[in-house]
């Protein structure tokens, strides 16, 4: 994250308060864990869980370590990690408060997947949430028992890919029903995922109590008329159909990301994954970290504890040592075209006094901005344009005697390591192959590539992380676009466009990298 | 801002091929913002030209000025001008002409096509908004320019070609006057659409000049 051989560092005071957006179980648990580290946590959103139950003790609340502002919402955010200036709103009123870090605890809603089973919801066909509501109080339980006891069938894992949370809810409810007088639970499970704490125990407990589980290979045959539902499966052991006409059918629920969460993500400038869940997946980051420094996501209790550790690592005792020159804007060159601001995947750039400013507290040094800047006004401390250009020059000169000579711009997070490993493993590489280290493929300028060709390189390779694996989220995508643009330009010039290629690689793919390089050399 | 696009490479190559030493001159204002003629584009274009001409072909220098539409910034080229046979300007048409005016003995070649006055929709994505007609009616048209957005440039619309919100020339092209109607209706200002605008005087067009209020005396003194 921070440049490797940094020299210029500064100490900055940072705000020690933490904003938690989302007052459900995960949000309140995160607040309790953060308060336990000694930082004040302010929780906003609609409160949907018990604060004490989530660990926010009365002492914490009395001491002001946890402050719950029920019904307050996030309006806007400015600033960077350590100094987020957040606008909060309640009704017509708004106020600005400063926080050092922000935690998002999304509250996802469920939608019953009855149509996946060809079922219509009615008094007998209910969703998992409806069942849980019945089990929550005595009147509901009485209704379920209905005097002489009832049979409840759960349908799960056929309507969607199963997950431990959904399976856990089914197992817990089935066990509870089985314990009611004269009640019986049947679980029809498709794709069951039990990889979570306590799930095996819950399953065994249910079996011991008499819960019947079927795991047919295909979705059961389900017939619904006005009164009843009939579920039929073929038992492969007894080789016969097993029929059941339960009193209640409970259908699983799909999780809906909801406009609220996506709205919060947009306001905060953090990315969601392909399904809309927060945060975006990135193998280079801890799962609770977002693409913006100082903004974290807690989905559950485990996340909440990890978020508290991340918050502690960020805030510490309120002083943070930052590298000043990770990326710096030359304000005499900057024309505030906003290209850098729009391209930055980390929300690290804003503008002030007629020029763009890159915050060392938020910048992660990928260099996408520097390569996109139309005025070459941005320089990375560790990877200046001058250094990279002379690196290219040296690379071409040192390979001048070999044919073909290849300059490979290698992302230090993937291709560089793969290339170094290939050399150590002794994989055969072309004699004229030279690597130029870049912080991210996003820092490969169009003119670097063109100049490598001008200097005399026979071929240029831009080697980035695989799609979806870029530490800077989009550096590999920008690199791919730029290479495509250059190939087009070469073609327009009547030159062989295949002299420039884009490839993706992982750091542990030494052999594959060597193969790709050799293939490229062969073509040249 | 003024939006420009780089000319096709072959066209530029042909233009410069008869010179020995050419200075590529970028402009650090509008064309830099629209990613067509800032210092990055100067570097890239020169690299392409070097690649095309080889080391023994035409030689290229690089310079990016703050603005080519100001004499004071053009003066910065004075000391270098003698070294070069021609200038290859990446500024808008105004900048290119002013550069040619400043160095009347020097061939000045355009490396970009000036496209329009527009806005930035996203990185590298621009849309025309103004034709600089010299007679702004945006007050009456709900802030939507009928000269730019209407295919006929009508000051009093819509015409008979309006079709369910689209223009007759293309179903994907919104009818400007339909949009104007919608916006004025939403603002409760439909009375504006009833007003008749007199036809714009397009006759006897010559380069327009603007002197901002308060500067008349200064301009007069300059002669």
UniProtKB/TrEMBL annotation, chain A:
Q: Kindly give the InterPro entries that the UniProt entry links to this protein.
A: 4Fe4S_Fe-S-bd (IPR017896), 4Fe4S_Fe_S_CS (IPR017900), FAD/NAD-bd_sf (IPR036188), Fe-S_Ferredoxin (IPR050572), MvhD/FlpD (IPR003813)
Keyword 4Fe-4S in record: yes
Q: What's in the keyword line of the UniProt record?
A: 4Fe-4S, Iron, Iron-sulfur, Metal-binding, Oxidoreductase
Q: Does the keyword Nucleotide-binding apply?
A: no
Query: A Pfam family for this UniProt protein?
Result: FlpD
Give one GO molecular function term: metal ion binding
Ranges for domain 4Fe-4S ferredoxin-type: 325-353, 354-383
Q: Which PROSITE patterns match?
A: 4FE4S_FER_1 (PS00198), 4FE4S_FER_2 (PS51379)
Q: What's this protein's name? A: 4Fe-4S binding domain-containing protein
**Organism annotation:** Desulfocicer vacuolatum DSM 3385
UniProtKB/TrEMBL annotation, chain B:
Highest taxon of the lineage:
Bacteria
Where does the Methylene-tetrahydrofolate reductase C-terminal-like domain start and stop, copy by copy? 110-203
The record's annotation in InterPro entries points to:
DUF5981
The name of this protein is: Methylene-tetrahydrofolate reductase C terminal
